[in-house]
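Service request form, structural biology core

Requester: graduate student, group of Dr. S.
Request type: structure prediction, single chain
Budget code: on file
Notes: please return the result as structure tokens.

Sequence provided:
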Amino acid sequence: MRFIQVESYEKLSRMAAGIIAAQVISKPDSVLGLATGSSPIGTYKELIKGFENGDLDFSEITSVNLDEYVGLTGENDQSYRYFMNNNLFYYININNENTFVPNGCADDLAAEGAAYDEKIKELGGIDLQLLGIGLDGHIGFNEPADFFTKETHVVDLHESTIEANSRFFASRDDVPTKAITMGMMSIMQAKKVLLIANGANKKDILQKAFFGPITPEVPASILQLHPDLTVIYSEN
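Core staff response, request fulfilled:
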């Protein structure tokens, strides 16, 4: 594990984008695992700059996103498909048909999860997985639990997660209470994992996740077992 602390969110974003850019350049047909939330926005802006400058070509890249809210269509401005389109995909030359996000409106969510895992397997797995971390240690929407769940699955969101995400919605009551999320197997089988965290409020959970015991009560702690993990953190 490489744990890197930097002095600003801007530097975090540049460093994370640099790692992703290196992956894209070294393997132009990479499979990138992507994340949503506030943490990766700066990273995506840096990747867009790289494309606009002519340094990056995403035409052969495939992406698989970690998760999606149950019940939100891709046209909903709070869905993660909408987020990815408007924070990255629309501004680079990635083929939309090669961007995958779990379908939170599928009639059979269990079948959707199994199909998502199969798609990742068909792609040959994830070359580089980008992650954030929740204040309770969740990655994707893998919440604290009694065991690690391997497969893509539906999860009931914890109150702390709903509260944290309520800032993106008109009211707390509008926040979905369920999500479909990639499980630990696909995340841990990624060839490289890059986790970014910003803010002094993440310091305690990073300490627990990466310098404490491995436990499903702190889902991110399983990443201690990954052979190629980079964590970048900024308090500011």
